[in-house]
Amino acid sequence: MSIPRRDGLNIVPFIDIMLVLLAIVLSVSTFIAQGHIKVNLPSSSSSQNPQEDKKVTIKVDSESKIYLDDVAISEDELEKKIAALDKNDLVVLKNDKDSKFSSFISIMDVLKKAGHEKFAIVTEKEQ
């Protein structure tokens, strides 16, 4: 009587799973590498680059969500943070052209309430 011979371990399903995991890791890593909030800036013919050492960036995306230095923040929290800023710090506003105009006005209102008049509105230079 002969002993039945066992076949080797079938590794094809393991390779399939590893390839799927590799594809997921590669696709996710491209989003992590960018790490920025996408903001479509409006264009302007008189666009300039502000040259300041201390600056705080406020971004508003196309869905009118507010970000302070790439961290999502509510309007109330923004008001507290702006009030705590030094008056000489430059506030850079990057407002998506598809966002609601009311979000731009509310940020300008927060700056005015805090008495912070040193700010720049970022646009793209027209070609």
From TrEMBL:
InterPro entries: ExbD, TonB_ExbD_2. Keywords: Cell inner membrane, Cell membrane, Membrane, Protein transport, Transmembrane, Transmembrane helix, Transport. GO terms for cellular component: plasma membrane. The keyword Membrane applies. The chain crosses the membrane at residues 12-33. Pfam families: ExbD. The keyword Isomerase does not apply. GO terms for biological process: protein transport. Involved in the TonB-dependent energy-dependent transport of various receptor-bound substrates. Belongs to the ExbD/TolR family. The accessory proteins ExbB and ExbD seem to form a complex with TonB. This is Biopolymer transport protein ExbD.
